[in-house]
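[retry 2/3] Four and a half LIM domains 5: previous attempt timed out, resubmitting with same input.
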Amino acid sequence: MSMPERFDCHYCKDSLLGKKYIMKEDTQYCTKCYENLFANCCEGCSLPIGSNCKDLSYKDRHWHEQCFKCSKCSRSLVEKAFAAKDDLLLCTECHANDYSSKCNTCRKPSCSRKMEYKGNSWHETCFLCHRCQQPIGTKSFIPKDADYFCVPCFEKQFAYQCCACKKVWPGPSTSPLRSASGTASASPACSAPCLLTRRPSS
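[retry 2/3] Four and a half LIM domains 5: success.
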């Protein structure tokens, strides 16, 4: 009577008959030897990722499923969007709070729809006219000191007005021309020389 062919672990030579084993390149290993020889080390806990665990990988780095979480708030990143910063993995909320530009008004992270001017950014709904408090959006605006005004409000509060024809001096960003006496100039608003006065705000 012939002896049955042995079926042993390639590394430790223990019998695999009736035991769980893993094949690698047509060679069989017991689970213990396979994990010691080939298992990836988890970035989170530094333990081997066993054959009975899910191995999650990102850029040649590996994690147990339960260790794949945001480096700041520790929420799971499994099947969720995340961002990488240096060697850290962050959920989108933590990444936005720490690294995204902040709205100059509410100081919350600016989203994709934002207004930008001279290095500052705003949510579209936070970029308001200082006078009427309405969103400026994509309309023209005029900066005045540290504030911003829509064109109609700037004209009401700051623009010069012709005393004769009552029209606003054209172009709120254009300073009125003054004569040598400093009191009158020729205005394109009407054909005759106009006396200019600061338009009273209302």
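[retry 2/3] Four and a half LIM domains 5: Helices lie at 31-38, 92-99, 151-157.
[retry 2/3] clearing retry counter.
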